[in-house]
Design goal:
single chain; 5-stranded mixed β-sheet; Aspartate Aminotransferase, domain 2; Aspartate Aminotransferase, domain 1; globular; alpha/beta
Length: about 400
C-alpha cells in the first residue's frame, strides 16, 4: 500500500514550488498588449529584476528557458571565431560551452572538476598567458545545478583584474538568483543569466539577462546577434514590443509580478537567510547518515556548497532506489544525479539531488528528510542515526539566530 496519496512535493531544482499566489495571478483575461497597464507592469518588473540582482545596468526579459538565455548572452558577447574561456565546475558550465561552440565561438574549458569551486589563481595564470587578449569573456556558473558547487564570483573578478585582462565576466545564476546573495555591481559582473522557474518561483518560460554598460558597448560589434536574441533593441525599447521582440508573455509577467512582490514582502536578505537555514538542515542530516553508511555530500567544503540544492552520493545504487521509493511510497520527488555519471556506468544510480529553493519552508524541508529517512530504513540502506534530530536542531538554531537580530 502506497502512502503517497495527497499533495505531492517535487523537491527537484526547478521547476521549484510555485506559490498559490503566483498561480492565481495568472488566472485572468489577456490584457491590451500595446499600451496601458502592461507597459507599467513591464517597467516595474525590469526595475525590480535589477534590484534583486543589485544591478544598476540593464535588465531584459526573453520568452525562453535558461538554455535560450545562454544563447542570448553568447549572441551578444561574441562574433564568430571569438574565444570564450569557460570555467567549469560541472554539467551546466560544459553545456554553456557547448552552446557557444555550436554557435561558432571557440570555447576553451578550464576544468575544476565536479566537487570544488573555481581556483582564482589558476584562472589568473591562464589569463596572463593570453597576452593578445583573444579571450573575449570568462563564463561560469554561480551554482552548478548538477554538482551544486557554489563559485565565488567576486574572487573571479579579482583574478581577471589582477591579470590585467579586458575579458567580460558572464555568470549563469539560473540556480542561485534570490537563493544566494548576488551583487552584480559590487562583484564586477558584466552579463548575468537567470530564468523564472527556480528562486523566482514562476513557471518555466522566462529567461533574463542583466547587462553592464561595458557589455552593451562591446555588443555593438557582435555578428552573432540575430533579431530575436539581440539585446540592443530590448534595452533601447523604441516601442513597447521591443521588450519581447513581439508579443509580451502576458500571464508569465503577472506571475512574475506576484513572485517579486512576495520576495519584497519577505525581504531579499531574509530570503537568503531562509535558504541558508534550510540548506544547513539538509547538510546536518547528511552528516549523520554518512556516519554509518556509504553516503556523502558531493561538495566537501561547506563554503562551496549551494544553498538552493544539495547533491549527494549513496553508494551501490542506493540513490536511485531511494528516489524511486520516496516518490512511490511518500509522494516526494527528488532530483536525479545529473551529469555525475553516464547511464552506462555502474555508478549512475549513486547520485541524487535535494532541492530547497524558492517557496520552501522548514516543515517542507524536514518532511523531505523524514521521507528519505523512512526510505533508507525500508530499503535497508546502511546509514547513521540521528539525522532528523540534527536537521531539527539546525532549524531551531537558525530560528534563535533570527529572533536575536534587531
Amino acid at each position: 500500500m502506497s502512502l503517497s496519496n495527497g499533495r505531492p512535493y517535487v523537491a527537484i531544482p526547478g521547476p521549484s514550488v510555485m506559490p498559490d499566489r503566483v498561480l492565481a495571478a495568472m488566472q485572468r483575461p489577456a490584457p491590451n498588449i500595446y499600451t496601458g497597464a502592461i507597459v507599467d507592469l513591464t517597467d516595474g518588473l525590469l526595475a525590480d529584476l535589477k534590484q534583486v540582482a543589485r544591478c544598476s545596468g540593464h535588465a531584459t526579459i526573453y520568452i525562453t528557458n535558461g538554455h535560450g538565455a545562454w544563447e542570448a548572452a553568447i549572441a551578444n558577447m561574441f562574433s564568430r571565431g571569438d574565444t570564450a574561456l569557460v570555467c567549469s565546475t560541472g554539467h551546466f558550465a560544459i553545456g554553456w560551452a557547448d552552446a557557444a561552440a555550436r554557435m561558432g565561438v571557440e570555447a576553451e574549458i578550464l576544468d575544476f572538476g565536479r566537487r570544488a569551486p573555481v581556483d582564482p589563481q589558476r584562472l589568473e595564470e591562464r589569463l596572463r598567458q593570453d597576452s593578445d587578449h583573444t579571450i573575449k569573456a570568462v563564463l561560469l556558473t554561480h551554482v552548478d545545478t548538477a554538482t551544486t558547487v557554489l563559485n565565488d564570483i567576486a574572487a573571479v573578478r579579482r583574478a581577471i583584474d589582477a591579470a590585467g585582462h579586458p575579458a567580460l565576466l558572464a555568470v549563469d545564476a539560473i540556480a542561485s538568483l534570490v537563493c544566494e546573495p548576488f551583487d552584480f555591481d559590487a562583484w564586477g559582473v558584466d552579463v548575468l543569466v537567470a530564468a523564472s522557474q527556480k528562486g523566482l518561483m514562476t513557471p518555466p518560460g522566462l529567461g533574463f539577462i542583466w547587462v553592464s554598460d561595458t557589455a552593451l558597448e562591446r555588443s555593438q560589434a557582435s555578428d552573432l546577434a540575430t533579431p530575436y536574441w539581440d539585446w540592443k533593441p530590448r534595452i533601447a525599447k523604441a516601442i513597447f514590443s521591443h521588450n519581447f521582440a513581439g508579443t509580451a508573455p502576458t500571464h508569465h509577467l503577472y506571475a512574475l509580478r506576484e513572485a517579486l512582490d512576495m520576495i519584497e514582502e519577505e525581504g531579499l536578505e531574509h530570503v537568503w537567510t531562509r535558504h541558508d537555514a534550510l540548506a544547513r538542515a539538509v547538510w546536518a542530516a547528511f552528516g549523520r547518515w554518512a556516519d554509518g553508511g556509504d553516503i556523502e555530500l558531493n561538495v566537501p567544503d561547506p563554503q562551496a556548497r549551494s544553498h538552493a540544492v544539495t547533491a549527494a552520493r549513496f553508494g551501490g545504487g542506493a540513490a536511485e532506489r531511494l528516489r524511486s521509493w520516496v516518490e512511490t511510497e511518500a509522494g516526494v520527488t527528488l532530483g536525479i544525479g545529473l551529469g555525475m555519471a553516464l547511464p552506462s556506468e555502474p555508478t549512475y544510480g549513486d547520485f541524487l539531488r535535494v532541492a530547497h529553493m524558492g517557496h520552501v519552508n522548514a516543515h517542507m524541508t524536514l518532511g523531505v528528510l523524514a521521507a528519505m529517512e523512512a526510505g533508507l530504513q525500508a530499503l535497508d540502506v546502511p546509514h547513521g542515526d540521528g539525522a532528523l534530530d540534527a536537521a531539527a536542531a539546525a532549524i531551531a538554531e537558525a530560528a534563535r539566530e533570527s529572533a536575536a537580530r534587531p
